[in-house]
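Kindly review both lines to help learners:
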Amino acid sequence: MPITISPATTADISHIFSIISSTFQHTSLAVDAIYPYHDNPIGAVAGTFALLHEFKDDPRARFFKAVDTETDTIIGHANWTLYDDDISVLERPELEGERWGSKEEKDFAVVMFGQIMEQRWEAVEKSNGKIL
């Protein structure tokens, strides 16, 4: 099975989100909190829109897809964040949207996301953005 790696497109985001959902199922507390109900149609649409927002609006985000060239099917993806500019002026991302079923669910997701991002930002700041 030959595989090619190339930048993802807007049209790929729905399939990429389905890969995230099926890969993590309910084994990741963070995925479940950030993308609630990702395994049902309404949650999948909301999660796809959230991922599409990041894809389109975060200038540092780079999405790649792995495609089986025999079937022309996306079989994997990677999402990288590049910090090419002065990190002191970068805004920290926040969770947006209304995809949670209750205020408590969103509050939990915000805390979970904040903890994940705090670890990332500590590493980014420590390395002045030069991190893999």
